[in-house]
Amino acid sequence: MTNTDAYKRWSYVPNKMLPETLSPGPAAEFEDIFAAILAEKNRASKHAPSAVGDFLAWNTKGKKPPLFWCFNSWAEPFLLANHLDENQPLYAMGSFSGITNKWGLKTRFNEPLAKRYIESVRQVKGASSFLIGGNCQGAPIAESMAIQMMDDAGVSPYLLSIDYIGKRTYRGQRFMLFGRESGFNPFLSTRNPIEFWSERNSQYSWDFLEGKHGTYFLEPNVQKLAEFISEKSREATPPQRNPFRALWDRFRLRFVQPSQLH
Predict the structure, then answer these.
(1) 27-36 tens-digit pLDDT
(2) DSSP type of residue 202
């Protein structure tokens, strides 16, 4: 690995979002690729607890903010789910990894794939806040999902990623993980990543997993990853109002004169 790989690796992801709609020819090609992603998902579904839309799902009755994660391999969500709190819902989707080796298609189809996955996010009911994440090639898809949801619906998912520098501007919270020995770790390059991120984000943080790229769903890294997810899930949980304060507020509004309210 050269010391510029952390940035060069993501040259296929443009700094700005591309149109989500496709002309008829590319749209047909996208549908073929998406069908291949779903075929892989369907094969893996035989071993998953459940499925929702285009996702495989774990812990769907959990009360924590759900995590929607774009994986590179269908083995990864099974490995991660084994270490998540049973109260942490996980919805797994697939990236282009192993489906196509054409980087131009991964560039052009990133936003349409993200948009398609958002349709499945809408099928998950009752979540007032949630997290969206991805590792490696799944991370730009997760990033696009978060940006589209903020632009189109005004919601701002907590955005998580592994070994991805974050190419696009995101106005919500962003948390990035990197392998300490990974060629995708921008802190091992000569370019200052903090300056790079500050130009694109207002709320961002980062931390590290041990080892090299591709080891994050294996023990012991996967336990640490699950701990980070639990931490960010707590941060994404809306604060609960004290029920006695709610009763007091109703009392004040009903019986106290406006001039007496403080």
Answers:
(1) 999 999 999 9
(2) E
